[in-house]
């Protein structure tokens, strides 16, 4: 009677890790590998080094959280749809940080810059004004301009928009503080200014010239300009008067356009989930 051939059994896990048959079992203690009591306690140095490294890695990972807690960085708070921006196929969004930043700018642009509650940097009507202006400028910036402005023209107008904004809110430090308070970096500020610049170029070229007023026009405006511009001589305050006047003309034109487009713009306020 012939014996059946013995089946080949897969090697145990210990063999695949490099242990030899007859090596002692090893227990993992709190402070490192501990050899099991019994016969043949001699373990090779390489095995101990491997086990020590494995134990150290396990203890290191045990002290760390498995995954970082999710942190909300920003969220969309307004969605709007308009034919100028592509209709339902291209909805536009306003994020919370940017809307708060623009609301701060609206509050700073008021002649009375002191709020009754110092803990509130802006009020509800500032948020509404910021949202309306953001939507209106986005619509205007989406329209075709003939002739199409070059990149240099857009950059130049963006610089002019920044200077008008800085004068309106009380200085460059006010702009920097508002941006820092809402976590807005320089790239995002430039994106807002470039949007505003393209909207301004559309109004100037396609609606009515308003970016370069004449000297006679500025002289008439100087007589009704706010203080301290009106008290200064025209030659000393001409540049500041021009920025104030152009900024006011553009703001009125932007909101006039939006009043006409409001009926075809679908605005949705997004609730926080």
Give a verbal description of the structure.
This protein is mostly helical and 273 residues long. It has a domain at 76-260. It contains 9 helices and 5 strands. A 3-stranded antiparallel β-sheet has the order 4-3-5. Strands 1-2 form a two-stranded antiparallel sheet. Helix 3 (96-108) packs across helix 4 (124-141), helix 4 packs across helix 7 and helix 5 (151-169) crosses helix 9 (234-261). The model is unreliable at 6-43 (pLDDT under 50).
Please tell me what the overall shape is. Answer: globular
Instruction: Evaluate the radius of gyration.
Output: 34 Å
Mean pLDDT: 82
- Major pleated sheet: 3 strands, antiparallel
Question: Given the structure, what is the number of helices?
Answer: 9
Got a strand count?
5
Helix percentage: 40-55%
Order of helices and strands: HEEHEEHHHHHHHE
- Stretches where pLDDT falls below 50 for ≥5 residues? 6-43
Instruction: Tell me the span between the first and last alpha carbons.
Output: 78 Å
Main sheet strand line-up: 4-3-5
**Percentage of residues in strands:** 5-15%
Structural class: mainly alpha
Summarize the structure.
The chain is mostly helical and 273 residues long. The chain contains nine helices and five strands.
Keywords summarizing the entry:
273 residues, mainly alpha, three-stranded antiparallel β-sheet, two-stranded antiparallel ribbon, 5 strands, 51% helix
Secondary structure topology:
Blueprint: H1 13-16, E1 26-28, E2 33-35, H2 45-62, E3 76-81, E4 92-95, H3 96-108, H4 124-141, H5 151-169, H6 172-181, H7 186-207, H8 215-222, H9 234-261, E5 266-269
Antiparallel strand pairs: 1-2, 3-4, 3-5
